[in-house]
Write a structure and sequence with these properties.
This protein is of the alpha/beta class. The protein is built from 13 helices and eight strands. The strands form two sheets. Strands 3-2-4-1-7-8 form a six-stranded parallel sheet, with helices on both faces. Strands 5-6 form a two-stranded antiparallel sheet. Helix 2 links the parallel strand 2 and strand 3. The protein is globular.
């Protein structure tokens, strides 16, 4: 039996809670699709599932690299594909859960990632340009070179902008020209959760306040003491950057908190650019509706049955 359920949507909408509820009814395991939860020691600021949640439902691709390790889309696709296949081999339902559109669509659409090795010297030059000219100068260059690739990268995500420019300068080809898609051979169900913008903002505010209450400042201080610089891609994530600046005396705590909330609002808008409400591939649900869990379970059971039928048909054809 092979199939996959992806649970997508903006931050703080309730994706993880839905996945845990679904897993209590349909034997499932979660594959993380949050680009920050792959890093060790970064728990509070990334809203990782708790130890009890991970004990009740197995989670994959959480705490797989240190904050100063290189981690890219090609590595994510390989690890996630291996995890999905392992879950399917157990006869369980893999749940791909997260708000990273890049990660989600790379798996659901089966992107072929250009296998271009990193060039440390070139990256250093591009990073220096970003510091001197600003992040948006590099993004503008990428947009001129490859407007399609630019639509898939947030302008402030300097690391991915640099990677796209690196691919272009190393190969002489636009990154999007090197992509090739090979969709999964098994059925995929995409569940989308959404809420009114005002309610999402309220949840974000509450989540950030709770991060501060539960020790985000101490977590950032611990990371800095371990030697992890704020210049690392992992440490540039929302919350870590702002609280890191507070710890280093560059911001007041109140300002750092407000900036964290503001940047999370920006992230939310970017996530809706990845997951369009008009996308007919996505089964959208209002997360405030009481019947969401019941309807998602019904759709997932139907998908599982379809997976069983496809597997049976394949077995019969081989017999």
């Amino acid at each position: 039996m092979k199939c996959l359920v992806a649970i997508v949507g903006p931050t703080a909408v309730g994706k993880s809670e839905l996945a845990l509820h679904l897993a209590r009814t349909v034997p499932s395991e979660v594959v993380n699709a949050d680009s920050r939860q792959v890093y060790r020691y970064m728990d509070i600021g990334t809203s990782k599932p708790t130890s009890s949640q991970r004990a009740s439902v197995p989670h994959h691709l959480i705490d797989v690299v240190n904050p100063d390790d290189d981690f890219n889309l090609a590595m994510y696709r390989q690890l996630a594909t291996e995890a999905i296949e392992a879950i399917q081999e157990k006869g369980k339902l893999p749940l791909l859960v997260g708000g990273s559109g890049l990660y989600i669509w790379s798996l659901v659409e089966g992107w072929g990632i250009p296998q271009v090795p990193p060039n440390a010297e070139l990256r250093s030059k591009l990073e220096a340009r970003a510091r001197q000219e600003g992040n948006y100068a590099l993004f503008a260059e990428l947009n001129r070179i490859d407007s399609l690739a630019a639509t898939k990268i947030h302008p402030s995500n300097t690391r991915r902008v640099i990677r796209a420019l690196e691919i272009y300068q190393m190969t002489g080809q636009a990154p999007s020209q090197l992509w090739h898609n090979e969709a999964p051979s098994f059925p995929v169900l995409i569940i989308g959760l959404t809420l009114e913008r005002s309610e999402l903002y309220r949840r974000i505010g509450r989540r950030v306040d709770n991060m501060i209450t539960t020790g985000l400042v101490s977590e950032v201080m611990s990371l800095l003491k371990k030697g992890y610089s704020l210049n690392l891609p992992s440490m540039s994530g929302i919350g870590y950057k702002q609280i890191g600046q507070f710890v280093q005396g560059q911001l007041d705590l109140a300002v750092a908190i407000e900036q964290t909330k503001y940047e999370t609002h920006r992230l939310l808008r970017h996530q809706y650019a990845w997951f369009h409400l008009s996308d007919e591939r996505i089964h959208w649900f209002d997360a405030s509706e009481s019947k969401v869990n019941e309807e998602v379970i019904s759709l997932s059971l139907s998908l599982r049955d379809e997976g069983f039928r496809m597997a049976k048909k394949q077995q019969n054809s081989l017999a």
